[in-house]
Amino acid sequence: MKVSHTTPLRIAVLGPVRAWRGEQEVALGSPQQRAAFAALLLRRGRPATVGELVDAIWGEEPPAGAVTVLRTYVSRLRKVLEPDRGSGQAPRVIVSAADGYLVRVAQEGFDLDVFERRVAEAKKLRTGGSLRAADELLQAALELWDGRPLAGVPGPLAVTERYRLDEQWLSTCETHLDIGLELGRHEEVAARLTALTAGNPLRERLYELLMLALYRSGRQAEALAAYGEIRGTLISELGVEPGAALMDLHTRMLSADPSLRAPAPAQSSGGTAADSPQPASAARPAQLPADLPIFTGRESELAQTHSLLPADGGHPNAVVISAIGGMAGVGKTTLAVHWAHEIAHRFPDGQLYVNLRGFDATGSAMPPDEVTHGFLDALGVPPGQIPDRPEGRTALFRSLLADRRVLLLLDNARDTEQVRPLLPTGPGCLAIVTSRNQLTGLVANDGAHPLTLTPLPPADAREFLARRIGRARMAAEPEAADEIIDCCARLPLALAIVAARAATHPGFPLYAVAEELRDNHGSLDAFAGGDLSTDVRAVFSWSYRALSAPAARLFQLLAAAPGPDISAPATAALAGLDLRETRGLLIELTHAHLLTEHFPGRYAFHDLLRIYAHEQADREEGAPERERAIERILVWYLHAAAATSRFITPNRPRVPLVPLPGNCVAPRFTTYDQALKWCSAERANLIAAINQAAAGDHSAVAWRLTAVLWGFFYLRSHTKDWLACNRVSLAAARRDGDPKGTVEALTGLANALTNAGRLDEAIDHYHQGLAAKQAAGDDSGDSQIVGNLGDVCLRAGRVEEALVHLHRALEADRALGNGWGEGICLNNLGEAHLRLGRLDEARGYLERALEVQRATDNTWVEGISLDFLGTVHHRLQHHDAAVEHYRHALTKHRAVGNRWGEAQTIEHLGDVHLAAGAPDAAREQWSRALALLEEFNHRDAAGIREKLRTLDGEPDSTPRD
Q1: Higher-confidence position of 144 and 512
Q2: Which of 615, 694, 756, 895 has its CA 20 to 30 A from that of 552?
């Protein structure tokens, strides 16, 4: 910001927007007028057009006469800021510039400038080892803040800038507190961090510092508890684990790493306490149902159950409880009965069995006292001696088993309360419990060993089918057999029903059975057995009817969610509920095994249960309610992805979003790693959301969601996804007559085509994008498309044509004060001159590009420019300088997760080593680059393989143009 020698003003934005002339505060007017002033101040001496200021204050829906109102604001501000200015004098603070204005204020009079200078100087002092001076300077910088920045200022620019400034404040706090730790102020730092983490529960760096401060204060248990707290929050809120730095610190604390300079934590016992022995017994009943003669698979599960008993074949010294759980139809009873028959000989006093009817079609679950009555009868107790009261029956039952070795199989339990009175309390007995619910109380309080069954592995599913319909029939039509297995989703009950149909019609070819299943896709009609116990729909219904009404509603809505799984926050958006209530309902569904928590905080349907949920929704849930739920989750995904883009592609122009429904809360991210992890975890769901939005009435969400994800697609080289999402978004925008969406999708598709190396198609789509903008009467933002057009012409070898486009884009970006675009254009001009062999000009453009990129925090393109500068020096045979620039480029690539850029720069390092006469070093670098590219199957891998193959011959060490 330029210094004014004639305007003694002090201006603050690090709190409410305020101004002073000397000691006298200036009345800056209404909130909107302050918003206009703030928008000019934040341009830091660069001009802002009238259109940009209108957007900054009012966004996409400015009032009628907005330009006139804006000019009134400027006029009023000029009067209060320069009350002594004569009528013929030109303004000195708010100056007219082309179609807009700029502000001139002395740097020492603007609190944001002062803050940033102090922070930059403190960083230099810290690097030079002057910790106390750096600490004092950072303290002075933080004292400039007076609450939330831009407090009370309305408008979209204020929202964006407030978020950015908050991040600067937090980052500075982290640096200041880190220095405090280095200076040994552990207790003081811990106290401050406790408050900061409470207000920023997802901020991993704050927790890292808090853990270290607590640990160095001798509070090891609290340090570890802090890790548990943020890990639980990250899993529940975002569905991700902590980052590598936090996990590494936790591991080092657990191992009392001496480098942490902390007292050795008390050693905790890692031994596992043996379960309290509790005996049991029986007369000689043999009540087990018949074993299935064609039982198949489940070898790992059987090994797990057998491991609960002594390996020498003896009886257990304590009561053993095995709780076998899983969804309906997954084979819990079959496995329990098979295992019970295998070990029955180890329980010579008998085997007791009962179907507790926890999920019976009639809803008549067996009361525990009725079960104990039956067991006492089986154990030979005369009817007259069986107590009337339930607790008396339980006491007698346990007394009879106290000195005996009995196996109990309690099948189809509803909950822990139904099971607990039936458990023996003496050694030597085994109780096997099966349930569709997760019997967590039995595990937590009674020492039960949980085993959750999932659908059969593919090999077991094939064996399951072969043993029922014959191996020859399977071998004759292997593809049809695999399709049958896929349609049954490897669920044993579904496979058994279809196998029974095929076995009873041996003349039916398997392809006809598979075709019948295909025809019923989306329905469970093909899985109707001869009675209720073998009808998949009926079996599922027994679990469904046991749900509470809110859980049943959520079960239905989840069928409409896009993607293969869903997080708890996304589920809350889908249902329109708060997160706490949603988690309770998710627990109810997972306990009923109607939903699977396959990763902490992430939930998924079994394929057949999803179909059942769809059927229930069609039957019970109205279409309007389902449509509202779909809209909520699609818009939630849009806002969540937009929140990640602030870290993945910072300082980029933002896509205007569809408003978030009032009862939805988008996640907040505090680090780049969190944002990238979230996108990776949600990738399949995000793509499904784009497709679902495009196919329905939400094309505005489809193209916006695709647009905000471009940085993730690019960084992670998900080029196929990038192309596909832009194509469906473009088709939807054109279908709905959305000109803005059409332009955005055409440009996005051109970007993806460029990344895929399909340059002629990319050029055509950029031209289509420009034509679509002109047809819509929109002349804003042409510089970005023109600049991209220049870049792709450059890649296509059309260098002179590229120069025309790039100079045009550079001129437009400078006129608009668009530093981000200017830095990219300068980089591309540097590359163009490099390709033409004009190395001095290339270096000039690239060095200017770095200046602009660093001023606008464009770390992404900064890495690319450093790489190009390395190549310039390589071409000039300045090998040491080339290596230095390449190493700096690698630092930038890694900071933003640009794996392709990292691989390319490592390859160029190898080129320099080869040119310098170090073939072994070249081989090492090329091998590293190849390994990176092979991770995401990038087409550039072929070129590096060729270099490695020819290294012993006559390798081409010419640097790239």
Answers
A1: 144
A2: 694
Would residue 58 be called left, alpha or beta, if left means φ above 0 and alpha means ψ between -120 and 50 degrees? alpha
- Nearest one of 485, 479, 484, 493 to 460, comparing CA atoms: 485
Q: How far apart are CA 421 and CA 394, in angstroms?
A: 6
- State the pLDDT at residue 961: 46
**C-alpha dist (Å) from residue 761 to 65, 348, 556:** 42, 78, 43
Neighbours of 465 (CB within 10 A): 26
Identity of the residue numbered 10: R
> Which two tokens mark 19?
């101004």
CB atoms within 10 A of CB 793: 24
Sheet containing 9-12: give its strands across.
Answer: 9-12, 18-21, 24-26
- Give the chain's radius of gyration (CA, Å): 35
Provide the token pair at 200.
């920023």
Instruction: Give the strands of the sheet with 566-567, arranged side by side.
Output: 566-567, 602-604, 596-599
User: On the CB side of 774, how many CA atoms lie within 13 Å of its CA?
Assistant: 7
Closest CA to 677 of 728, 628, 716: 716
d(C-alpha 605, C-alpha 593), whole Å: 9
pLDDT tens sequence across 518-545: 766 555 565 555 444 445 665 567 667 7
**pTM score, whole prediction:** 0.63
Contact 423, 433 (CB under 8 A): no
Task: Tell me the pLDDT tens digit for each residue of 788-838.
Answer: 899 899 888 899 899 999 999 898 888 888 888 899 999 999 999 999 999
CA atoms within 13 A on the CB side of 715: 27
Question: Hey, how many other C-beta atoms are within 10 angstroms of the C-beta on 946?
Answer: 12
Residue 592 above 80 pLDDT? no
Q: Helix and strand tally (H, E) in the chain?
A: 42, 14
Phi (first) and psi of residue 685, to 5 degrees: -70, -40
pLDDT digits (tens, 9 = 90+) for 634-666: 999 999 999 999 888 876 777 889 999 888 888
Q: Rounded to an integer, what distance in angstroms lies between the CA atom of residue 568 and that of residue 597?
A: 10
Rounded-to-integer distance, Cα 368 and Cα 55, Å = 69
Under DSSP, the state recorded for 100 is E
Identify which of 227, 232, 221 has the alpha carbon closest to the alpha carbon of residue 248. Answer: 227
Residue 209 structure tokens:
């510092």
Closest CA to 914 of 877, 942, 881, 889: 877
> How much is the pLDDT for 957?
47
- DSSP secondary-structure letter at 89? S
As a whole number of angstroms, the distance between CA 17 and CA 464 comes to 72
By the 8 A CB rule, do 436 and 359 touch? yes
Phi/psi for 246 (5° steps) reads -70, -40
Computed from CA positions of residues 278, 284, 288, 292, in that sequence, does the dihedral angle turn out positive or negative? positive
Say how many C-beta atoms besides its own lie within 10 A of residue 958's C-beta.
10
Q: What is the pLDDT of residues 571-586, one digit of tens each?
A: 999 999 999 999 999 9
- Look at the block and give the residue holding tokens 């969540």: 640
Cβ contacts of 300 within 8 Å, gap of 6 or more: none
Q: Which two tokens stand for residue 359?
A: 């999920």
* Helical spans, DSSP H, in 756-878: 759-775, 782-795, 799-816, 819-835, 839-855, 859-875
Question: What are the CA-CA distances from residue 515 to residues 133, 463, 479, 843 (Å)?
Answer: 78, 21, 12, 66
The answer to whether 708 and 666 are in contact (CB under 8 A) is no
More confident residue, 662 or 517: 662
Terminal-residue alpha carbon distance, the chain: 38
- List all residues 6 or more positions away from 577 whose beta carbon is below 8 Å from its beta carbon: 585, 663
Contact 773, 743 (CB under 8 A): yes
Q: In terms of DSSP H, where are the helices of 382-488?
A: 390-401, 416-419, 440-446, 458-469, 471-476, 478-487
CB-count exposure of residue 164 (10 Å: 0-12, 13-18, 19+): middle
